[in-house]
Amino acid sequence: MNRAILFISAAFIVFASPACMSAAEHSQSLHSSNERELTVGTVQRQITKGMSQASVAEALGSPNIVAKDEDGDETWIYDRIASEVSFSSDSGGVVGGAGAAGGGSDVMILGGLGGSYSRSAGAAASTQKTLTVVIKFNGGGRVKDFSYHASKF
Predict the structure, then answer these.
(1) What is the rounded CA–CA span in Å between residue 95 and residue 114?
(2) Is the pTM of this model over 0.90?
(3) For the chain, which terminal residue's Cβ has fewer other Cβ atoms within 10 angstroms, N or C?
(4) Alpha-carbon separation of residue 122 from 2, 24, 66, 117, 139 (angstroms)
(5) 43 neighbors 60 (Cβ within 8 angstroms)
(6) DSSP string, 41-74
(7) Angle at the Cα of 65 from the Cα atoms of 35 and 132, rounded to 5 degrees
(8) Selected residue with higher pLDDT from 103 and 119
(9) Is residue 92 a contact partner of residue 117, using CB atoms and an 8 Å limit?
């Protein structure tokens, strides 16, 4: 009888893959670079009137355009365009089966059960962002005024 229980235990096999992720989980795990990223928040937090040109360059990096007007005042323009395209996918499933057999003259049990399930999920995203920052300096090299415009589509 112990051999029959051993055979039944050994014959019962269920395989499952619990590590599958949903499309929403993939979307949240997509990589986005934040190193030296110029954002509206960065401008609002770090740029103030009266700030020196060196401090602005340290906070925002080098401008795309530098221009001087007839009074000798400089204007720095930061113009950034970013495209982000991401794709993530996942698939998985569950396969199961059970069966039993007994040997010898004591017990003979035969049976079977089987089934399967599979699925796949994915997420794709494409985003365009623009940010233009205009910083005007006075003759002494201090921030006189600044403005910005951001869009995302």
Answers:
(1) 8
(2) no
(3) C
(4) 48, 8, 44, 18, 55
(5) yes
(6) HHHHHH--TT-BHHHHHHHH---SEEEE-TTS-E
(7) 60
(8) 119
(9) no
User: What is the structure's pLDDT at 143?
Assistant: 98
Higher pLDDT, 36 or 150: 150
**7: Cβ–Cβ under 8 A, 6 or more apart, which residues?**
100, 101, 102, 103
CA 8 remoteness from chain centre: 46
* pLDDT at position 124: 86
| Residue 95 φ then ψ, to 5° | -125, 135
> What is the arithmetic mean of pLDDT over 68-82?
94
Lowest mean pLDDT among 17-21, 89-93, 126-130: 17-21
Does the structure show a pLDDT above 70 at 130? yes
Dihedrals phi, psi of 12, to nearest 5 degrees: -85, 110
Please name the residue that has the structure tokens 């006075």: 138
Domain map (residue ranges) of the chain: 18-29+37-92+118-152
Q: Which residue, chain included where needed, has tokens 């007007």?
A: 69
Beta bridge partners of 89: 122
